[in-house]
Amino acid sequence: MRTRMLRLVLLLVVIGALVVALVAWLNLRGEEPLAGADPDLTSPELIARGAYLARAGNCAGCHTERGGIAYAGGRGVPTPFGTVHAPNLTPDPAHGLGRWSAAEFWRAMHNGRARDGRLLYPAFPYPNYTRVTRADSDAIFAFLRSLPAAERPNRAHTLQFPFDQQAALAVWRALYFRPAQPENDAGRPAAWARGAYLVEGLGHCNACHASRNALGATAGPLDLAGGLIPVQNWYAPSLASKFEAGVADWSDEHIVELLRTGVSARGAVMGPMSEVVSGSTQHLHDADLRAMATYLKALSPPASEIAAAAAASGAASAAVATVGNADSGGAKLYDRHCAACHGDAGEGVPGVYPALAASRAVTIPTPANLVHIVLEGGFPPVTAGNPRPYGMPPFATVLSNDEVAQLLTYIRSSWGNDAGAVSSFEVTKYRTVSAR
Question: Computed over its alpha carbons, how large is the radius of gyration of the chain?
């Protein structure tokens, strides 16, 4: 009996050692030895290029605390597992990148590993940045090294156990992270390849526009099927579905206008996407915005899109004649609070107040964004092309949960809209989370 137990224990030890070795190997896969001298980090051309690329990646969005020094870190990135605090990226030798080499910075971008060898948390989107080229990584590093050094200590992450352990992170990476290269499809035009590089890599769009599993992982950088943004509870719509935020039937001009100014004839951005336009896409060159448009227009719709389109078409036809329940409490609330701006029939005012009739932002299956906008209000981003955007006032102190539910249910079922009702429970759930 004792011999059998010893054999079992030995077997378990061997299996455990093999698992540990496999996890360690998977975490080192694709890493190259750190070697080579740094490029000329003082080159004005390289620094200027790096500044542009840092804008494309919206690096300041996380690495600048509100009201703080640019790129000096400190901003908390909330996750379902706790808060990850973005580090100092200025060249301060004690707290920033002052002692880093270009190769170490590249390893962080490409492999998600810090200068001291620690594994980085994927709140830093290295699952996307792994597609960034070494040349672009060097340019970004040159730009960051050109910044004034900020003696700002980094804040410790506040993560729950076991997610605060390197061993748990190693298992996560073994399951979900693979070093990668930029997309290269010989059958696609150069503009598509550039758009893929920006959307999948530097722009890390699927960090928001993808659903996540219980361990916070997406299906990969190409997953743009939409999902709730963790903690914030805003819904980042699918960029492939024409019923959500797909742009296959948009003109390039309308897509470029939306990314550059935050508003266009086809829609406007609010919520977390406003930060992206404000801090990143409004600063991109026209050629890069058009490349992103080319890529986004070429996204394949979901497999069920054709059947859903046929069903939606029939439902919409039947709904066109429906003006809404004029006797409902929602109709009265709309007349009192909304009609003055959005029109009696939800027609809006072009370029000022968006139309609510036949609006996919209104009929999107998940009502999270509508609840946030009604309760918290908001503005499209302030951009060079739209310096004084018209905004939406907050109604959190005016309307109860039941009233918000009635109002949104009315809007989602009127003037040709044919979407599901919004419950008071849903309003309660989204009310508890404030927009950032």
Answer: 24
